[in-house]
């Protein structure tokens, strides 16, 4: 089983195209299912450790994977039962059902088993489950010690991560052939439990990927503070937010951090404070300007935003600055970091998945857009997308977004292109949250930032 970090992500339609390409290249649909089912069987066998397995099979190819896995488990000598509510409908699933050859119980009457395999629906789910399916599934999941979902948990919508049915989460989900949006977009991602990638030889070129740990090089032997990256944080009405962003930039590898505008007392001495003037941003050594955390929305805030936009420096635009932007098109290198409310206010609620909406926002603005939340979608104007999920839910506390803006600013000032800076920043921020444990405050998060693995 392979962690999903860095894996290509495919929608249901992309997955079918990849399958069609594989078939055109000479791998039959039966062979694909044989590989998928065998891989599921092998993983279940290892985890079951001899305990009884109940495999729930649906009518399509997800169910087909289940029948193949059940047969493999039986061959391996495990006690295994199969239950369904509908006959197999696809040729491959029918063939797999026949090869299973033994009794198939009625789902509604099936007795629980400690190990439950959910092979009811995968990427073909088209609507919410009937109670006749979700009721027994809920009952059997609740009774099982371990539930393993094949491809995606039944009841979640593959492409947008919406949960169409109310079911307990799986413990483990095996992403067959490619990671799907539902494995990373909430709320579906939480329904998946741990997600592991199962390679069945599907070629999966995609511009959308799951986030992976960045490789961060130490400063060159010849480095000096300006070559490390100079970050200017433009503060405003709520100076604490600017201070958090500035402290975070300093801890995320910046060589020099300048805090322009009002400052708080409790600020590391290493951070240089100055009055805000548009001229202060003319320093050619500034590699990134962070504006928005605690900026306010008054006239002074607008002036600071106008000055920052005119500076021609690479920008990280967050919080209030996002609300104040009239012209959404960014001329130079820019990273926008809206949370859901800011995103909707800027771009409307729109249609499509969080990924689709973020891609459209990046194309429309010409900026990298970091669409934050329990899942964070990072999209570049050229169509590259990284999805980061599973970070600590303790991040849901005031000021953590200010910290993120500062971290991204440091990576941008270090000379990374905006997409890479944003992706690294989101990862480092999540890693700091993991280290910080429970009930931390944004200030603690700064202390837990580290650039070493
Ligand atoms: N593609 C690949 O590369 C590979 C795919 N593989 C596997 O195949 C899986 C996809 O299989 P799939 O396309 O047959 O869809 P699947 O999820 O089994 O469901 C479709 C069936 O369910 C039905 N149905 C839907 N919703 C329903 C509801 N709420 N309530 C009741 N019925 C409902 C639907 O009927 P309909 O919507 O037409 O009424 C149809 O009959 C994929 O997830 C992976 O596990 C691997 O084997 C190898 C490589
Ligand atoms: N439930 C959650 N799980 C994981 N991360 C979260 C959750 N809620 C918020 N976050 C993260 O915390 C940060 C909050 O940013 P933001 O909403 O801008 O806060 P603030 O404006 O108070 O600084 C973002 O990085 C976001 O992705
Ligand atoms: K499933």
Brief sketch in words of this structure:
Residues 208-453 form the YjeF C-terminal domain. The protein has 453 residues and is an alpha/beta fold.
> How many strands appear in the DSSP assignment?
18
What's the level 1 CATH class of the largest domain? Alpha Beta
Radius of gyration: 25 Å
Q: Any ligands, ions or cofactors bound here, and which? A: ligand NPW, adenosine-5'-diphosphate, potassium ion
Largest sheet: 10 strands, mixed
Which percent range fits the helix content?
25-40%
Binding site for (6S)-NADPHX: 61-65, 122-128, 151, 241, 294, 339, 402
Domain YjeF N-terminal: 15-208
Domain YjeF C-terminal: 208-453
Pfam family, one: YjeF_N
What does this structure look like?
- With 453 residues, the protein is an alpha/beta fold.
- The protein has 2 domains: 2-11 and 20-208, YjeF N-terminal domain (Rossmann fold, 3-Layer(aba) Sandwich); 225-447, UDP-N-acetylmuramoyl-L-alanine:D-glutamate ligase (3-Layer(aba) Sandwich).
- It has 15 helices and 18 strands.
- The chain has helices at residues 12-24, 29-48, 61-75, 91-100, 131-143, 188-192, 225-228, 239-251, 299-310, 319-324, 340-347, 354-365, 400-413, 418-436, 442-447, and strands at residues 2-3, 53-57, 80-84, 105-106, 115-119, 146-150, 172-176, 194-198, 208-210, 230-234, 256-260, 272-274, 286-291, 315-317, 334-336, 368-371, 375-379, 385-389.
- Strands 9-18-17-16-15-14-13-10-11-12 form a 10-stranded mixed beta sheet, sandwiched between helices. The protein has an 8-stranded mixed beta sheet with strand order 1-8-7-6-5-2-3-4, with helices on both faces.
- Strand 7, helix 6 (188-192) and strand 8 form a beta-alpha-beta unit.
- Helix 2 packs across helix 3.
- The chain is elongated and about 80 Å long.
- The relative contact order is 0.10.
- The mean pLDDT is 96.
- It binds ligand NPW, adenosine-5'-diphosphate and potassium ion.
- Ligand NPW is lined by residues 15-16, 19, 32-33, 36, 58-65, 89-90, 121-130, 150-151, 176-177, 200, 202.
């Amino acid at each position: 089983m392979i962690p999903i970090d860095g894996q290509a992500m495919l929608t249901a339609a992309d997955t079918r195209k990849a399958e069609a390409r594989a078939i055109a290249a000479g791998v039959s649909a039966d062979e694909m299912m044989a590989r998928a089912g065998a891989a599921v069987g092998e993983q279940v066998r290892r985890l079951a450790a001899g305990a009884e397995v109940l495999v729930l099979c649906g009518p399509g190819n997800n169910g087909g994977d289940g029948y193949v896995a059940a047969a493999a488990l039986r061959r391996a000598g495990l006690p295994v039962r199969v239950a369904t509510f509908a006959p197999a409908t696809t040729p491959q699933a029918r063939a797999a059902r026949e090869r299973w050859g033994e009794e198939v119980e009625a789902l509604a009457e099936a007795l629980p088993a400690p190990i439950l395999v959910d092979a009811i629906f995968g990427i073909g789910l088209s609507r919410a489950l009937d109670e006749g399916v979700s009721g027994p599934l809920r009952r059997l999941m609740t009774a099982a010690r371990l539930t393993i979902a094949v491809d995606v948990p039944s009841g979640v919508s593959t492409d947008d991560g919406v949960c169409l049915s109310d079911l307990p989460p799986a413990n483990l989900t095996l992403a067959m052939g490619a990671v799907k949006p539902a494995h990373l977009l909430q709320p579906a991602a939480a329904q998946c439990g741990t997600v592991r990638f199962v390679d069945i030889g599907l070629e999966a070129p995609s511009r959308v990927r799951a986030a992976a740990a960045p490789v961060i090089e130490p400063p060159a032997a010849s480095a000096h503070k300006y070559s490390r990256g100079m970050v200017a944080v433009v503060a405003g009405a709520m100076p604490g937010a600017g201070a958090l962003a500035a402290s975070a930039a300093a801890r995320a590898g910046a060589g020099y951090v300048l805090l322009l505008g009002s400052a708080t007392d409790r600020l590391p001495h290493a951070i240089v404070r100055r009055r805000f003037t548009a001229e202060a941003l003319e320093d050619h050594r500034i590699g990134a300007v962070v504006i928005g955390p605690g900026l306010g929305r008054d006239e002074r805030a607008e002036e600071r935003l106008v000055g920052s936009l005119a500076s021609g420096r690479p920008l990280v635009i967050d919080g209030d600055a996002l609300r104040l932007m009239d012209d959404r098109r960014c001329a130079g290198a820019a990273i926008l970091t809206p949370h859901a409310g800011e995103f909707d206010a800027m771009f409307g609620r729109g249609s499509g998945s969080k990924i689709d909406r973020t891609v459209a926002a990046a194309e429309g603005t010409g900026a990298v857009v970091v669409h934050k939340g329990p899942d964070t979608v990072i999209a570049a104007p050229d169509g590259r997308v990284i999805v980061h999920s599973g970070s600590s839910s303790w991040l849901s506390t005031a000021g953590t977004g200010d910290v993120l803006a500062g971290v991204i600013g440091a990576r941008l000032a270090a000379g990374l292109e905006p997409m890479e800076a944003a992706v690294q920043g989101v990862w480092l921020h999540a890693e700091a949250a993991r280290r910080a444990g429970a009930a931390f405050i944004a200030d603690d998060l700064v202390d837990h930032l580290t650039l070493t693995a």
